[in-house]
Request: fold
Amino acid sequence: MLKNILIINDFAYINGGAGKVAINSAIGLSRIGYNVTLFTAVGPIDESLKLTNVRVICLWQKDILSDSNRLRAVRQGIWNEYARKEFEKLLIGLNPQETIVHFHAWIKALSPALFKPIENLKFKLVITLHDYFLFCPNGGLFNYQNLKICNIKASSVGCLLCNCDVRSYPQKIWRYLRQMVQWKFVKSIKNINIIYISKLNREVSYPYLKDISNKWYFVQNPIDINHRAVVDVRNNEKYLFIARLSSEKGIGLFCKAMRDLHLKGCVLGDGYLKDRLQKEYPEIEFKGWVSGKEKDELIMQGKALVFPSLWYEGAPLTIVEMKSYGIPCIVPDKCSASEEIIDGKTGFIFKSGVLTSLEDAIMKYEKVDRNIMQKNIIEDFNPGKYMLVNHCRRLLDVYSDILSGC
Reply:
């Protein structure tokens, strides 16, 4: 019988989609009455956790990108021995027949070292595929040099020889080494269970993981839903971009389309490309990361969301959030965002990475009856499927199935 749930996440605070799901699910599961432990490396501890029954273990380490001691970062990224020891201590005090270990994110601080005690102590493991780090060295099946989806088999010799890294080829070699270390321990674990978050997510992952896992479960990510009135987009003029400002998110494509079509763009997000893009596209508003009332006010000014992500993004939360506002979305075909859109009825789908296709989709939207499109969005949208309580119920079904050995 399930009593204990261990949730593994690099950060003790929300720093992105995976962290948000990990922390919110920890809170939701603890409210139901389970003993939930969140095992993390990097602080501070999120405020949302402080008034809950979630036991938070934070090792107060630096993530490997932020650590100024680069030699330590190189070593820790491949094998975080301190994290392994502390995780093993935690596991030793628990009964494997009453415990589920659920991995969300571990690459940026905790490292693959955590897989070793799971096999040694025979605990049941489930991994949510928020990205592709389980089998791809750079985690995205994406070539950051040519900004295209990578067609080379991940972790193959061809993969080693390909300079796809966002930083440098030596960094790629280091990532490849980390992948080899990780795979050694992952493949030794019996009966790894996989949670996928979209059809595309499973489709691209299954060929790599089919030999180590025969249990695959779909679990819908919980998403913050707008419960206020929908946005009246009829007189709005601003196309919204809401994401991290990094190359794989397609921010360059968005900016080019806004300039080419002489349309108003508003960017909500931050990242290493922000300063350069602000100088290059002064006509576009760059608001940085926003939240709460400020974010809500900017969304209320939106005409549509343009989501031009270039990689196999697993389940972008922003699309559902915009649907809850009744805001149409323009999304690429090689991204699971397209699974949330009925082309021509609740938004438009364009050919991934192709500027002319994006611009064509935007111009179609310019000519559409937006009242009808909003009506279609409202009729198609089911907020209940994205609620945290339903996410937690589904997780409990998955955990029960895993522990029962069915």
